[in-house]
Amino acid sequence: MKTTLIKVFAAALLGTVSVNALAQKATVGKQWSAAKANAWYAGHKWMSGADYIPATAINQLEMWQADSFDPKTIDKELGYAESIGFNTMRVFLYSLAWQQDKAGFKKRVNDYLAIADKHHIKTLFVFFDDCWNADAKIGKQPAPKTGIHNSGWLQDPGNRLGKPGQEAMLKAYVTDVMTAFKNDKRILLWDLYNEPGNSNKKEASMDLLVKTFSWARAVNPSQPLSVGLWDWTFEKLNTYQALNSDVITYHDYSEEPSHLKTIQMLKTHGRPLICTEYMARTRNSRFETVMPMLKKEKVGAINWGFVEGKTNTIYAWDTPMANGGEPKEWFHDIFRKDGTAYKPEEVELIKKLNGK
User: Fold this and answer.
1) Mean pLDDT in the chain?
2) Domain Glycoside hydrolase family 2 catalytic spans what residues (predicted)?
3) Burial classification of residue 298, based on how many CB atoms lie within 10 Å of its CB (0-12 exposed, 13-18 middle, 19 or more buried)
């Protein structure tokens, strides 16, 4: 895996003709210089937080649709985040919720940002996603499948991609939402596409990836753009992502020594680093080992999972529990619904690292 990683960074540093030509053709605006990106990063406290969806939502649609948007729970749970010093949350948007009710969707985004700002939390918003279920439907969302990790999470656009009118809709979605909030200081960064190539799509996701960067650059927001590196075998995707991101974001669920090697490789880009997914206890990616290392290396630390809820992310990716009982060790998540810490010693460590 690390040999492949070296190839990716060599390509990104030297710049292959084909990838650079693709970047120049597709990207309307300008990638931030490394100096600008580093100055931006230096203007913020060390970033720590979680990927966030309220416990009452099984997926992104349930979070953002008018009938199920839950500001009361969001306020309560972001209060938990503030109490342990978290200052950054990564939140997934969803295109169908925007298409259904454009003005209402943007109002709910603004309402979310107001709640987060009250708790002194900045937000990274995610537009597209290649993970989990490919078919999404507006309306009431399914109940969680017992004991199954992220049973209702949705790809965006999933199986809609390639259907008549979809590309125009997706472009309008990115353009409208980003234009509305392009100078909003409550937004830290735009994370354009979560794990492109996942669900065995691989390089089939390159077209949407390239176009999304182009749409975003055309808006020219004040916040930086990024798409996180996550699978080191996807050399073409990774090289494009690295060459076009203002700030390097990435996912790493490995244990601390392996994760540190990834950071050392990524630092060769000379840009700020934010880990936007880590912490899977049964894979030995843990707060007590990884989070102190991230702080020492000056890498932003955003773990997957916050409050135990309908996403069922206390269960591991590949270890369903048919009886729906509590696993011997939670895979993700920090708090129970009532705000009790799953592991009080983890919360104490997080607070200490955040100066609380």
Assistant:
1) 94
2) 172-297
3) middle
